[in-house]
Amino acid sequence: MYFPHDIIRKPIVTEKTVALMEQNKYTFVVDKRATKTQIKHAVEDIFNVKVEDVRTMNMKGKLRTQGRYQGYRPDWKKAIVTLRDGDRIEILEGM
After folding, report:
1. Tens-digit pLDDT string for the chain (95 aa)
2. Which domain holds residue 72?
3. Residue 50 lies in a domain
């Protein structure tokens, strides 16, 4: 069993995701093992909103170089959550 704050790691705030917020879609970094149902319940519990749709993507870590050493950043999972009309996440709106 997971706690909601273990599933939703942090919001992603970029120009593209801020434009999605106008369409009532919010983007989060989530736990790699989390399912769409778990993500839905976690967002509803944390922000007191109703979720209509959850889309997830597994993102590959980028190659990074430091001096002559190379390595990869860790893989991560991204979720785009669509809320019901009229619902908003106020904390993320001001960004």
Report:
1. 679 999 999 999 999 999 999 999 999 999 999 999 999 999 999 999 999 999 999 999 999 999 999 999 999 999 999 999 999 988 776 66
2. 4-84
3. yes
- Measured CA angle at 47 (ends 35, 25), to 5 deg: 65
**How many Å apart are CA 64 and CA 60, to the nearest integer?**
12
Residue 42 domain-assigned (yes or no): yes
What pLDDT score does 90 carry?
83
| Number of domains the chain contains | 1
Please report whether residue 93 resides in a domain: no
Q: Using alpha carbons, select from 9, 45, 14, 46 the residue that is nearest to residue 28.
A: 9
- Residue-wise over 19-37: b if at least 16 C-beta within 10 A, else e? ebbeebbbbbebbeebeee
Taking residue 46's Cβ as centre, other Cβ atoms within 10 Å add up to 16
